[in-house]
Predict the structure of MFS transporter.
Amino acid sequence: MTGPLAPTVRVLGRRHVPRLLSSALLGRLPTGMAALAILLLVRDRGGEYGLAGLLSGLYAAGGALGGPLLGRAIDRYRQGPVLVGAALAAGVGFAALGLVPMRGWPPLAATLLAGAATPPLESCLRVLWPRVVSADLLHPAYSLDAAAQEILFVLGPLVVLGSVAAFGPAGGVVVAAVLGVAGVALFATAGPSRTWRGEPTARRHPAGPLRSGRLVRLLVSLLLTGFTLGTFAVGSTAYAEHAAGRGLAGWLIAANGLGALIGGVGYTLVRPGADLSRRLLVLSVALAAGYLPLALQPAPPVMLALCVLSGLSLPPVLACGFAIVERVAPEGTVTEAFTWVVAAFGVGNAAGATLGGVLVDRYGAVAAFLIGAGTAALAAVTVARRLVPARP
């Protein structure tokens, strides 16, 4: 096959790729479901946006705390046992959240467990790409990966709505538990995952990949990007309740995910960048510009279109960031470095959801949208100084 999509088709034609990619998406689907599932569960049981934002924030913060630890364990040992154990623990957390009353410490503990035990499938898949595709296909592979994960944020909210309709308010979190375990089981039993081993190093630095200052600066930028997405989830739910009903929230989040899917597929057509630092800066500015119009809060049809627009730049930002990680992560820390990227994004998402819930309770959805656009702009400022030298 020839044409702009030929590299992507070649990636998908490689042995193991369809199974690895599809099972990773299935196992990560709870990440795309969690924010809305928690929001709808809390609101159905009479909780306020502040509590919903706190729980969503705890879930993301748990992932940020647990992800690097799981990644370090995988770097030192192997993928399968760590992934399966984490998936079972996360499933217990989700199931418990659906059963406990929304008061006191039980929902906090259940949500934190579900987040902290989130299997780092995203990082595990990215360290496997060089083993399953040739070097000339790594750029389309990373771009396809970043685009495909946006399916989570298109399907996730819709799966939540269907699960709640079928099984009641707790359906979203219970179905998330089941899907997470199923996806990990398929991924961890695939050949490349079973045979992968971390790179041996003479000595382990206690800071791991965080001893790279350039990586830390990249993490700060992605943390701010995650903050923007966290405020969007809460702001869009508040907008939906006032504009047309709570059910609209799932469609707004799905529209954002659809825009991200379009942007990610489009990015697979772009040539690999020699100057990744400048590309990341331009993409971060575009991300901020895409989220700002949401503060206008127009009628629902226009808002849906703006949500699609706001999602376009996110996968290119992430794909570019992942490519930079490979250049700045110290040897023997690649899986952990990728989990720190996911963790930084998760911490930002947690902070955005938590602060967004407080702002929405006090000032309405517009405050969440404005602060989200502002943090996206700060993410661009953070990477204004070059992260890596340009390659010829």
Q: What stands out?
A: The mean pLDDT is 83. Residues 243 and 299 are 8 Å apart (CA to CA). Residues 213-243 form the longest helix (31 residues). The two ends are 28 Å apart (CA to CA).
